[in-house]
Specification:
8-stranded parallel beta sheet; 14 helices; 13 strands; about 15% strand
Length: about 375
Amino acid sequence: MESKPLIIRDLVAKFPLIQGGMGVGVSLSGLAGAVAAEGGIGVLSTAQIGYDEPDWDDHPIEANLRAIGRHIKAAREKASGGIIGANIMVATRFYEKYVKAAVAHGIDLIISGAGLPVELPAYVEGSDTKIAPIVSSAKSAMVILKMWDRKYKRCPDLVVIEGPLAGGHLGFDAETAEQVQSLDSRDQYKDSELLYGYEDEIKKIIEAVQPYSEKYGYRIPVVVAGGIHTAEDVKHILDLGADGVQVASRFVTTEECDASMEYKMAYVNAEQKDIAIVKSPVGMPGRAIRNSFIKKCTSGTEEYKPKKCHQCIEKCHPSEIPYCITDALLNAVRGKVEDGLLFCGAKAYCAKRIETVKEVMEDLFP
């Protein structure tokens, strides 16, 4: 398949692919650096990025801010001159500090979702760091485009669209996510009125971006995420008019992924029936692999009630939530998969073996 490079202002990636940011601890410098070295854009997740720092348990914010610099440096050493980005959730406590830390350490691109990043341009002002909001609808895209234009006299350098097949926290209601998850074959994905309808939404977002490209005198590329597993999926998204794809789950089952082997094998061993829509303490629906942890939380167990606040989410109230999302994600990434939350995309069950990043890239762009 012939593919054009992904051009984000003065950044040029050989392949039109962004590796999705996955936290906690799934996409760090190992994975991001490897994807960048192969011609994609490698992305760190800053969510509790310092979890393995010796002082993280007592001083999580300081440890995370320090680890941002450490992982950006390590990713660059692996990237062979490739592009390194960071995914920073708007819902993060001290979001501004995380953004400014990434900028201070020379990150190329910040991708921001889990809320609308209305203040992001102010936090990167005066730097060369490119910024990209994550949106799921034309309405949310227009809010950001209009606000950044009016308030900051600028527009996004890139727009990322996350569709209903994406993993982790979703910008859709639980009912829509459940409808998508009920489809039980790739043919049904193709034939689903729901997904065809969302393709119209993708086209509307691309159309919404166009006037701002014209106003500011450069192309604002649009990249689509969610359910992209094969070269056929990539081609389909590009044929819709998108400039590139964002792929996350496919990179979990790579040798270079920063998660434990137990985490990776949970994907390899998963069947479609094992992928579920869950309620996150963050207050959003999410997609994850059904395991003992999910079943216990659904039944109302007190086993995973928060014991300590790790300062992760701005509006979290530990006394009111069924489990701590940081603890759940850390258990999974460290290998305690039956006591952890394994976020995944709708097609995670398609993983059949452990690959290398190079093999994934060659498969997606033959």
